[in-house]
Amino acid sequence: MNQTNLPFSSPIGRRGLFRAGGITATALVLAACGKSEVGPVGRVGQGAPTPELEPEVINDGVLLRTMAGLETSIANAYAHILESGALAASSATFPDLGDQSDLVTLFVPHHSNAAVRFNELAVAAGSEAWECGNERLDSAFIDMLFERVENGAPATDVALAIEPSDDATRDMINLVHTLESLSAESCQAMVQAVTDITLRSEFMAVGVRSARQSALIALKINPGGYLISAATQAANDAPAEETTTTVDESEGAAAPPSTEIPLPVAVPSQFGLLSPLVFIGGRGDENGVRLKLSFETPSLNSLAYPFESCDA
Predict the structure, then answer these.
(1) Is the Cβ–Cβ distance between 133 and 73 less than 8 Å?
(2) 80, 114, 116, 196, 207 from 191: Cα distances, Å
(3) What are phi and psi of 277, to 5 degrees?
(4) Which of 120, 240, 252, 273 has its CA 20 to 30 A from that of 306?
(5) Where are the beta strands (DSSP E) in 181-296?
């Protein structure tokens, strides 16, 4: 056959054939080693629209529903504490505390009745009643605290297991003080948040009693701890290992020993505070670090919006 009639622009010799064969073999090996699966076929056209979130509505009804849930959570927490019997047990941290079960029992109807009243006002404001506890307060704070104090924490890939609390009575009475303070602060925050000024007195009535109960519990924990001292204020401004409180020696009161868990005082500030309430408790981990939670007044992530509901 005449070479000029071949469909090639240039002749291929023996070396060219070997070279072409090698390239082909390499391509076959690479193809065999590669993945054979293919992804889904791309969609041509316009995709589904981005879902729209419910409108954020914050009105007096939302604030009242939120406070009803918060007060319900506190009442439920006290019922759990009383059922556990922790307040009737002795405390190594507070050996002179005594059984505070009867006192905390008296606190329960205050918060239950407050929840009922706030729901009545919410319905009057055009909203639905909120019969459950505050979901964020329960899940992110109270339930977590109970779990750590009563059951400890399981081991993980990076940490050893943590045993139940070394002093559950200490932790539970401190939680009572924290929740009473939270109720007082939250009511104070709502006074300036609501638009209907007639609601302010409702919040003030609940908040004042919660503040008094907080002060009473503080004195049960820390006898003579009426006012925060300069040393304690300095410790709050800068991290410190221990805190101290002012003690009235004229009454023969003696404060418990200071530890990394701050001692509460009856009047923590000259004016009402809205700052986070820090709870420290439970047994320390392998490094001695205890559970630390910052309880805060209701905010955007804990409000009972109109599009939310709960199963009582």
Answers:
(1) yes
(2) 30, 15, 18, 10, 10
(3) -100, 115
(4) 273
(5) 277-281, 291-295
Question: Which pLDDT band holds residue 177 (cuts at 50, 70, 90)?
Answer: very high
Q: What is the pLDDT of residues 283-303, one digit of tens each?
A: 999 999 999 999 999 999 999
Specify whether the CB–CB gap between 135 and 72 falls below 8 A: no
Q: How far apart are CA 41 and CA 231, in angstroms?
A: 69
Q: How many CB atoms lie within 10 A of CB 130?
A: 27
Beta bridge partners, 227, equal 267
Q: Which of 188, 55, 195 lies closest to 125, judged by CA? A: 195
Residue owning tokens 């300095």: 234
Say how many C-beta atoms besides its own lie within 10 A of residue 227's C-beta: 16
Report the C-alpha gap between 15 and 105 in whole angstroms. 99
pTM for this one?
0.78
**CB neighbours of 25 closer than 8 A, spacing ≥ 6?**
none
Residue 143 near residue 170, CB atoms below 8 Å: no
Whose CA is closest to 174, among 115, 260, 236?
260
Is the pLDDT at 97 greater than 70? The verdict is yes
Query: For 189, what's the count of Cα atoms within 13 Å in the CB-facing half-sphere?
Result: 18
DSSP string, 277-310: EEEEES---TTSPPEEEEE----GGG---TT---
Task: Please give the CATH superfamily to which domain 60-222+274-302 belongs.
Answer: Ferritin, core subunit, four-helix bundle (1.20.1260.10)
The DSSP secondary-structure symbol of 85 reads: T
Round to the nearest angstrom and report the end-to-end CA distance of the chain: 95
**Quick one: which of 273, 289, 264, 69 has its CA closest to 173?**
264
Q: How many C-beta atoms lie closer than 10 Å to residue 107's C-beta?
A: 24
